[in-house]
Amino acid sequence: MGLDLVGFGSRVLPNRVGHAADRRHAGGGAATCHGFFIDTRRRSNLMTTLKDGVVCCPQDGGGAASKLCASGPSETASRSGEVTADLGRGIADAITSTQRSSAGRNKGGRSWRRVPTGGDKPARNSAPRRAPVRKDTQVRRVLVNDDGVNAILSGVSRESSIEECNSVLIRLEKHSDVKALDFFIWMKANGKLEGNADAYRLALQAIAWKEDWRRAELLLHEMVAVSGCRLDARAFNGLIYVCAKRRLVDWGTKWFHMMLERGVQPNVSTFGMLMGLYQKTGNLKEAEFTFTKMRECNVKCVNAYSAMITLYTRSGLFARSEEVIVLMKDDEVTPNRENWLVRLNAYSQQGKMEEAKFVLQSMVDEGVAPNIVAYNTVITGYGKVSDMEKANEVFDSLESAGLAPDETTYRSMVEGFGRADKHEDAFSYYRKLKRSGFQPNASNFYTMINLTAGHDDNEAAPEILRDMRAAGCQCSSIVTILVRAYGAVEKMHKVLPILQSCFYKKVLYDAISCSILVTSFVQNSLLEEALCVLREKKWKDSDFEDNLYHILICSCKEAGSYEHAVRIYNVMPKSRAQPNLRIACSMIDVFSTMERFTDAETLYLELKASACVLDMIAFSVIVRMYNKAGRPEDACLVLEDMEKQVDIVPDKYLFLDILRTYQKCGQFEKLTDTYYLILKSEVECDEAMYNCIINCCGPAIPVDELLRIFDEMIQLGHLANTVTLNVLLDIYGKSGLFNWAEKVLNMARKHGLADAISYNTSIAAYAQSGDFRSMTYFVQKMQDAGFPVSLEAYNCMLDAYGKSGQLEEFFAVLQKMRRAKCDFDHYTYNIMLNIYGRKGWIEGVAYVLSELKSRGVELDLYSYNTLIKAYGIAGMPEDAVKLMQEMRIKGIDADRVTYSNLIAALQRNENFLEAVKWSLWMKQTGVVGVGTRA
């Protein structure tokens, strides 16, 4: 028989032929067979083959014990009629036996058979893998009993014609796919499939219902390669029909593309089924492809045009819908009732009512009487454009057209009047809808609630709510619709009285409805109503209740209603053994914003004393609280506690808080550790993170690393802010990296980020390095940029010129400052005192002191240190000692520099004994600090 391409092989199992054989000879070497059944659903290594009417086992080695005679009749059978009857019964017995066996396997679990393997162990049959068979929602087959099968097969024999066999196959296919396929196998074994395309088409459709697509592909191949049949559209249509019924888009598309690849011309049925499938599933792309192919094939399927119009209309592509209508006219396709309706819908959906009226009239002219669907479509269209006068006219014309309004008619009228904001008319049709025995849909309820809210109809609202309850709407859904409607018109204060008049008690027993209502009240600043519901609620669920209170507190916080958040927190049940971490964190944040840091810290201490384990969010909130309170040292202590919990992985925002905290405390070592921790972590560095790292960690990390991180920031396209650029200018300037400093300043100027501090920083860097030319250059650039030369810039120039001994430039700068009417600060006077003292110009020092006195400016520690040094240089040690006494009187603590300058002044003037006394005094007071140098 050759290779079986679809699994319909001629191989049979020995025990599967026994039902067709004579049981009396089952144990002998041969058995008379009155017909046979070939079962391919179960395979085994021990298989039998049918050869010349004899069933042979390939493992027998030619032994007679494994042969079953399947060709000749029984010796006792003498009449041909008896042979035919016996053969028919044999076929029926085989098919029926197969069904029983299959049912047994489905019900009872495992099916075993013994094979001659030389031992007593049972071997289990193996079955080829098949596609899962889905259950149809519709019963497609009529069950038939064994007698029915016998009746159908009674007139079939090997001598029956192909037409007779096909007739039997058709009848079996109507009853059962499995029985039809079994008979198809019998036909194949008896040579009834040669050129028999009809049988293959029936088998393909039976296989399709099983969704055994691989088997279907192979059968298509066998149909051409083995049986010599010609593929046509009908072979594929059976497959596509099943795909369309079961909405199997991918497989339906695959069979269609296979048709095209094999040069099979699709027909009207093909396109109709595919376009219906794509319409149901909303697959616009495949629908467009199929529609184009249909027109290329010059096939005129009116249903395909209807599907295309519907798809475009649903997608809002109204222009394309109209193009399809024009194409239909050009292709001379006559519309049917469905096509008229989809045309009508296409125009009505976009509010083109003149075109819709023309379509309606064209239906009448073509002899197609408009049904209620057509009138409903027109009413909906008028409702969309709020032309309810015309909609009323259409509604009134229903009676003259011999039609009665259905539920869609009334619903469309309600929606139309609702869209037109005609409350009384909408309510009138709403009541007509109910009196007619119909039920409003969800859209009607929503429309009516919105109308009652907008028109302040508090009497109608309870009626609608009761109707919604009667229709089976969930309590939570009703509350959601109600609060949205009244919230949109800013009448939320009306919601509670409305609910109290109908099913308020049900709300109090439903946690979800209650939470929706309370949250809406809080969001609309109706705190008293919210607290009332919270007091009266009847449900009990501590976890849900905590979540609700947390949501309410967060809602108040986001709205800036911090007092409301505190009130809600105060009414919370306090029965729990330990505080809720989320709620406590939210309240710490609220108290911090209100600058009630004592209350915030109290909550933190409660959390710390409880069994709650703080997480990353909690630590972030607490650190931020202490920073807002101006207590970064306490924030550092919190960070130390956090480091003890190894499972805490900071996020980006906590890292930012950590960096700012350590910067405020000047903990450069911690800043360095945090910087490298950020590099190791998986935190994504964005623009804010790069800026913060440079601002805070710049002075704490090596300059090379700072160069790298800044270059990485620029390469990623992030922009540094003004503070970041100024920090970089300061660090590069102090490190002598003037090329980089100049690049940073040019970048700042290019992006408009350079400010007076940027220029001051550059001027100070060049002044400290003694590069007076560059210093003067940037002073000029500062003026060119529109900034006046600042006091800080003048001070830098004074200090630089004075320390370098360029007194002419020093005094020139002083003159410029006076002409610019600069208000000298402590730093300016200290520079002058320092320079005059170094030169021993006591008159200049006295002038500065008198000017300070006239301005009411008190000397600071730096000033005293400078004066003591100046008096020592000028040979006035007694005045230097008097300054020490003056400092004590004013409460200014001397530092190491103060004592060093005084001792040096005494030693310079040969007052060694006095110098030793002050040196011993310095040691006794324990002054070891670096101090402020003069």
Please tag this protein with its features.
934 residues, mainly alpha, three-stranded antiparallel beta sheet, 1% strand, 48 helices, two-stranded antiparallel sheet
Q: How does this structure look, described?
A:
With 934 residues, this protein is mostly helical. It is 66% helix and 1% strand. It is built from 48 helices and 5 strands. The strands form 2 sheets. A 3-stranded antiparallel β-sheet has the order 1-2-3, with no helix packed on it. Helix 47 runs antiparallel to helix 48. The protein is elongated.
How many β-strands, per DSSP?
5
H/I helix tally: 48
Radius of gyration: 49 Å
Binned strand content: under 5%
Could you estimate the helical fraction of the residues in percent? 55-70%
Low-confidence stretches: 1-143, 929-934
End-to-end Cα distance, whole Å, is: 115 Å
- Judging from the principal axes of the Cα atoms, what is the shape? elongated
Which class of secondary structure composition applies to the elements?
Answer: mainly alpha
